[in-house]
Amino acid sequence: MARQKPLGTFGAVILFIFGVAALFGTDFNIAGATIVPGFSPYAPQTTEISNKLKAPTLDHPFGTDDLGRDVFSRVVSGARAAMIIGFAATGLGLLAGSIIGMVCAYAGGRADLIIQRVMDGIMSLPPLILLLVLVTVLEPSQITVILVLIVLITPAASRVIRGSTLVIKELTYVEAAKSSGATPTRIMWRHIFPNVVAPILVLASVLIGATITTEAALSFLGLGAHSAEHPTWGFMLNEAVVRGSLAKLWWMSIMPGVAITLTVLAFNLLGDALRDILDPRLRGTGAGA
Amino acid sequence: MARYTLRRTGAAIIVLLIMSFVAFMLINLAPGNALLAQIATSGSIGATTNSEQLALFEKELGLDRPVLERYGDWLWNALQGDLGKSLVNRDSVSKRIGQRLPTSIELLVIGSIVAGLAVPLGVMSAVRHGGKLDYSSRVFAILGLAIPNFFIGVIVILIFSRWFNLSLPTVPPAEIWEDPVVNLQKVIAPGLVLGVALIATVMRMARSSSLEVLNEDYVRTARAKGLRERVIVMRHVVRNSMIPIITIYGNQFAFFLGGAVIIEQLFLVPGIGEMTITAINQRDYPLVMGATFVLGTVVVFTNLVVDLSYGLIDPRIRYG
User: Fold this and answer.
1) B245 burial via Cβ count (<10 Å: 0-12, 13-18, 19+)
2) Residue A135 class from Cβ within 10 Å (0-12 exposed, 13-18 middle, 19+ buried)?
3) Which residues of B touch A220 (CB under 8 A)?
4) How far is B178 from chain A (nearest CA, A)?
5) Does the beta-carbon distance from B18 to A285 stay under 8 Å?
6) Phi/psi at B42 (nearest 5 deg)?
7) Most A CBs within 10 Å, among B36, B38, B97, B150, to test the A interface
8) CA of B164: which chain A residue's CA is closest?
């Protein structure tokens, strides 16, 4: 496996590292009490003014920012924020998109037509502008950002799943199920859904990377899911641009930027490998990128 | 062709209508109404607003009427080129957008030209399939797809200020027809960054579609009759691999525009993106609605042009 897909394996290893950082890097707090202490040396929001703007040292491997906060601990904490948003938004968006796509394709008719035109309308808006508008009218927070990303993912996902369902619903085994009296719900769940799992998984790997980049872009514009205790990589970049001197304090911008890039890279590589394994027809075409 | 153009244009207009309706509803039906946000940010009235004054403001802004009626009005005025007035300074929204749009278009044009340079790179990579150039350009593409454009921008600024001691030109904005040098100074760097961010996508597409064409029978025929490789590539491969490349450009255009918004913000370019973000921060809903509509129109229009260009590039394509 690892020998056949070296790049996919590389992606998986990077994701494992970021996954560990996301899970165990920062303290797990439930109702104010620390359940599992994190391994990162400082809390992401702890300021130490006497130690501000230090270049990377052994104490602070990624340096400190303008408030004396440890950049390493903040990058580690950002991993959790990125993963939560990436997985939650992609997962829920794909769920909504799959249901809408399957039901639309299976039902057909006027409902399908109307829903598809609404999806067209959403998709013809420039995604970033749509996000900016939605986040602002709803007040930025982690939940809001996840919700608006779902709005963005759902139409695209529904389009893909609808296409796959249209093909599958004409197949003989669906006809057989119909003639033996299966309800539409049963047909969709037992016969159609298992056959669209592969495109859903491939779509997921592409979308998670895109979702993380998009959230980073929002945070970079200061409208993302960040807060004092939960900095995001995009917002750290924003702080570096707005408050720091980019040239002198390179570690403030490079570290979170590299973290975003590596995560997205890893998801893309894993997704490519996954697509080759799950969908041989697409092998080597670079589709979906 | 004429019938197809007409039908496709009609479809684009319907998409525009739906898009404007979706945008209007999202902006106007969201919790926390525009009026309260406006009062809170303008500070023109103290914290204690009496209901009489509120009603007066509501009437003045037309917010007391049903939302569908307001959309109808907005659409009627928009069709006549009037996108309303800014809540912040009562400027005409159409005029503000008109001032900002040319700079953004310059940015998009520079970016597109840079991204277009990826086409020969992708074709070369396909022709030398498996070679050193192919390998390195694929590694570059995989990396390029992962780097967000604003991080590229940050790196560019960082490198230039750290090692070349250059900073962003802090010149006053000027239109390109007034002072081309000053104007280009402002947009050239962000335009380059915007284009570089798209290179990876375009290159990948150019490579895979050229690879496909290279396996076609007519390429084998061309080789068999002894044409030089250069001629084969120029005349047979490039021309036939243009359709998917142009399609991907159309598909990517909305994201490209989103990228321009961020890059404008980072490089302080006075374009429509920077204006939109300011408007969003000030809760200037008419301006946000106008900008969203104009940007959406640009996307729909670009995709229309892309669709119509197929027939020009590939004479085999005939529309029924």
Assistant:
1) buried
2) buried
3) 148, 150, 262
4) 30
5) no
6) -75, -30
7) B150
8) A247
**Cα→Cα distances A282→A170, A210, B238, Å:** 22, 20, 23
pLDDT tens digit at each of 320 positions of chain B: 678 888 888 888 888 888 888 888 887 776 555 556 555 555 554 444 566 766 776 676 667 778 888 888 889 988 888 888 887 777 888 998 998 888 888 899 999 999 888 888 888 888 888 888 888 888 888 888 889 989 998 888 888 877 776 666 555 556 666 666 667 777 888 898 888 888 888 888 888 888 888 888 888 998 899 888 888 888 888 888 888 888 878 878 888 888 888 898 888 888 898 898 888 877 788 888 899 899 888 888 888 888 888 777 777 766 54
Record the tokens describing residue A228, joined without a space: 């004092």
Considering only CB atoms, B162 lies closest to which of A209, A237, A247, namely A247
Q: Which residues of B touch A265 (CB under 8 A)?
A: 142-143, 145-146
- Please, which residues 174-213 of chain A have a Cβ atom closer than 8 Å to chain B? 209, 213
Asked whether the beta carbons of residue B280 and residue A133 sit closer than 8 angstroms, the reply is yes
Q: Which of residues 241-260 of A touch B (CB under 8 A)?
A: 241, 246-248, 250, 253-254, 257, 260
Strands A28-30 and A33-36 turn out to be antiparallel
Cβ contact B204–A286 (<8 Å): yes
Spatial contact of A164 and A195, defined as CB atoms under 8 Å apart:
yes
Nearest-angstrom CA–CA distance, B16 and B31: 25
DSSP state of A224: S
How far does CA B304 lie from the centroid of its chain?
14
Place of tokens 């929001």: A45
So what's the ipTM on this one? 0.83
Which H or E element spans position B213? Answer: helix B180-214
- Across the interface, of B26, B157, B204, the residue whose CB is closest to A246 is B157
